[in-house]
Amino acid sequence: MRIVLVGPPGAGKGTQAAYLAKNLSIPHISTGDLFRANISQGTDLGKQAKAYMDAGNLVPDEVTNAMAQDRMEKPDAENGFLLDGFPRNVSQAGVLDELLTAGGLKLDAVLDLEVPEDEVVKRIAGRRICRNDSAHVFHVTYSPPKKEGVCDVCGGELYQRDDDSEETVRTRLEVYHTQTEPIIDHYRAQGLVVTISALGKVTEVTERAMEALGRA
Ligand code: ADP
Ligand code: AMP
């Protein structure tokens, strides 16, 4: 399956993607995680992306599209992928459409996670991620690690993302509404959008998602 996950920052895309990718046996491709890995490795790509990310803005399309394409062309993504955080504007969606069409491929679904803004703000404020791998995600109250500050998965140090500060979150939500939300209409026109509530327990949301994808 080829799936795009969409929803505001803090909706739980990364959290759900981890379970869905496992259940569906497809790789979880998060452009945010790829940028953060590049930043921690000190690559040129990471240096280019950091200032945009810290400000809560989108990294320019040329940089993002090239990185996403490169990842989607890896052998493990041959039979499908779960995109998280890409595409993030209508222009990126157009590039993805062209890439897929050129390869004789198509998306199966765009899973839209709906969460009220006050809940998103609480989720972001308590989010803690692992230094080793930003796909290892916790929350200080909703899903605390067994040992405070330590990743359950790999023992790495947990920290708060620089862009999870209150001020940057406001910019990121605005960027979501103005630039990312329009991709939902873009995909609705293709009949691909399934919307679910992302409220409730993580496991409940995963069940809802699997059902919406016809994989319950
Ligand atoms: P996104 O990838 O959409 O930005 P995350 O998956 O990182 O969101 O989730 C944001 C925060 O919310 C994390 O701290 C995560 O542990 C927490 N979270 C995710 N899903 C739920 C849920 N169903 N209920 C409560 N907290 C959640
Ligand atoms: P995320 O981990 O999805 O919350 O993304 C963190 C940050 O990475 C975003 O606020 C952007 O600065 C950047 N980013 C991630 N994905 C994209 C994308 N598709 N296009 C542009 N910037 C992105």
TrEMBL record:
The keyword Kinase applies. GO terms for cellular component: cytoplasm. Consists of three domains, a large central CORE domain and two small peripheral domains, NMPbind and LID, which undergo movements during catalysis. The LID domain closes over the site of phosphoryl transfer upon ATP binding. Assembling and dissambling the active center during each catalytic cycle provides an effective means to prevent ATP hydrolysis. Monomer. Transmembrane segments: none annotated. GO terms for biological process: AMP salvage. The gene is adk. Residues 127-163 form the Adenylate kinase active site lid domain. It comes from Streptomyces corynorhini. It catalyses: AMP + ATP = 2 ADP. Its main location: cytoplasm. PANTHER family: NUCLEOTIDE KINASE (PTHR23359). It holds the Pfam family ADK. The lineage of its organism: Bacteria, Bacillati, Actinomycetota, Actinomycetes, Kitasatosporales. Residues 30-59 are annotated as: NMP. Pathway: Purine metabolism; AMP biosynthesis via salvage pathway; AMP from ADP: step 1/1. It is found in: Cytoplasm. This is Adenylate kinase. GO terms for molecular function: AMP kinase activity; ATP binding.
